[in-house]
Amino acid sequence: MESPAATNPSSRFDVENVPTNYTFPEKDRPGELPPVCHTLPVIDLGKALDAETVNLIFKASQEFGFFQVINHGVSEKILGDTTDVLKEFFASPEKEGSNSCGKSNWVYDGSVNFDVNGVHLWRENLKHPCNPLEECMQQWPHHPTRYRDVVSTYLTEVGKLGKRILDLICQGLGLEKGYFDGFSGVELLSANSYPPCPDPSLTLGILRHYDPSLITILYQGDVPGLQIMKDGTWITVGAMSNAFVVNIGNQLEIISNGILKSVEHRVVNSSEARLSIAAFINPSPSYIVEPAQALVTELNPARFKPKSYKEFVYSSGALGTHTKTLQRE
Ligand SMILES: O=C(O)CCC(=O)C(=O)O
Ligand SMILES: [Fe+2]
């Protein structure tokens, strides 16, 4: 007879001890988790967005590559509905297989697919493209039935927030007004479900990586797990249920000619279930990403060669084996 884990993918996480094929070698495992970092800037977008806000965002993007925003304009109701609908998605058997009918653009990966040198990650993941929204959403999951309505509302609001943040970054870099206007939509959604883990010192939710985006806007609710690399050590980002975590991706590092940093990060597990929703704001596939002319000077010559975004995604392998489904042509 088949084990429950073979028939229900989520039940493989329903164990008292971490199985050996989820246990990372000593050199890679997180061990004792560092305390939450209190110096990562939390920026209030509810007040007048003046030179001080521009400066705070600019400094945080240079120093950490990350910051958090509060009073961001995305309502608690939208955050709550989106969290609920994604939890329902991950709890439902429909997540398995229903994207194999050919009319879908979404990819679900149970941890069985995340085989890193023989060790699995402690997470499940859903990804789908989001731009153009009206067109893409016709092919998103249709279980739960309100998935498309709820998630499209969320992405519209997060897209507006992204535009405001890019405007502030544009000012900080001293680029001409509207420099980022061409890419203010969310291109890709990646939702992660990290089941409760019996021993988070042994496992990883996501391996260390850089985001291939311009910026990423992450909602992580109130369970911490995101760690960023700072001066050679991992620091844990505090979890605030009313905040978004924003980080600079590889494309903005290139456009800023290295002035802003795309910083390495990873996810550790928790004894509590954790859900995170990453919205990637990316250039369009044919956009040639290169340092902005205004930021190339004799003292700071171009540090990166021009490359189309599509070429970057394919050559970096950032979207793995699912690139064709997830990346617009
Ligand atoms: O789950 C998280 O906190 C981070 C997710 C992440 O880094 C990603 O999706 O690129
Ligand atoms: Fe990431």
What does this structure look like?
There is one protein chain. The protein is α+β, with helices and mostly antiparallel strands and 329 residues long. The chain has one domain (26-316): Jelly Rolls (Sandwich). It is built from eight helices and 17 strands. The protein has helices spanning 4-7, 51-63, 76-91, 133-137, 147-173, 250-255, 309-316, 323-326; strands spanning 36-37, 42-44, 66-70, 107-109, 115-116, 119-120, 124-129, 188-194, 206-209, 215-219, 226-230, 233-237, 244-248, 265-267, 274-281, 288-289, 307-308. Strands 2-3-13-10-15-8-7-4 form an eight-stranded mixed sheet. Strand 2, helix 2 (51-63) and strand 3 form a beta-alpha-beta unit. Helix 2 crosses helix 5 (147-173) and helix 3 packs across helix 5 (147-173). The longest helix has 27 residues, at 147-173. It is globular, with a radius of gyration of 20 Å. Residues 1-7 have low confidence and may be disordered. 2-oxoglutaric acid binds at residues 190, 192, 206, 211, 218, 220, 225-226, 265, 267, 276, 278. InterPro entries: DIOX_N, IPNS-like_FE2OG_OXY, IPNS-like_sf, Oxoglu/Fe-dep_dioxygenase_dom, Plant_2OG-oxidoreductases.
Sequence-ordered SSE layout with sheet pairings:
Layout: H1 4-7, E1 36-37, E2 42-44, H2 51-63, E3 66-70, H3 76-91, E4 107-109, E5 115-116, E6 119-120, E7 124-129, H4 133-137, H5 147-173, E8 188-194, E9 206-209, E10 215-219, E11 226-230, E12 233-237, E13 244-248, H6 250-255, E14 265-267, E15 274-281, E16 288-289, E17 307-308, H7 309-316, H8 323-326
The structure holds 2-oxoglutaric acid and fe (ii) ion.
2-oxoglutaric acid binds at residues 190, 192, 206, 211, 218, 220, 225-226, 265, 267, 276, 278.
